[in-house]
Amino acid sequence: ATVKTVSDCDCWVLDGPIFKKIVIKSVLQKRSTELGFLDKVNLFKNLDHFEKLSLLDGLKAQWFNKGEDIVREGEIGDLFYIVETGHVECWAKILNNKKQTVDRVIRKLTSGDHFGELALINNERRTLTVKCGSMKAKLLALDRDTFNRILGTIESYLHLDYSEFCKSMDRNCDQDETGNNITHNLSVLKDGDGVQ
What would you report as the CA-atom Rg of the chain, rounded to the nearest whole angstrom? Predict the structure, then answer.
């Protein structure tokens, strides 16, 4: 392309090699920071360095504002999510002691936590609604094909992770925040299933 001035101006010139060096340094620093974050995510502890690099190539950043739906119960699940900053809330439909169905927060997920994988593994619809709980949240999303290719090797760990969660649900969720007895409509969370 040809670039012409339309008025008097001062231009700064940067040599190609210097520009490339600056860009490469910036990219390497960014990747190092992102790898450092993945190293802190317990889910990825069994992935080697090259698998983590492949994972980074597939992750796409998404931003949400407080109260915004990230996934909705009943939707077809096509993405797996990792919370990078902020926190999200998992909402379930619950029967209270008056046999009325109410929406309640049953779990909060913060930096390094993940959700959405079981809908991909089991080819099922989302079983919970997940909303942004902080003023802003940054999530890393992975599509179904990349998820299956890279994370298929840790599927058993995912089920184990949610088996422990279900045990804690059985122990700790007999009352809502006001102390009323409640019955959960969380059969989908049994037998190792979890936040889809």
Answer: 22
In whole angstroms, give the CA distance from residue 187 to residue 170.
11
Whether 148 contacts 94, CB under 8 Å: no
**Predicted model pTM:** 0.67
CA 144/CA 52 separation, integer angstroms: 17
Distance CA 9, CA 91 (A): 58
Rounded CA separation 92/35 (Å): 33
For the chain, which residues score pLDDT lower than 70? 151-196
Task: Provide the pLDDT for residue 176.
Answer: 40
Q: 82 — phi, psi (to 5°)?
A: -125, 135
User: Is the CB of residue 137 less than 8 Å from the CB of residue 67?
Assistant: no
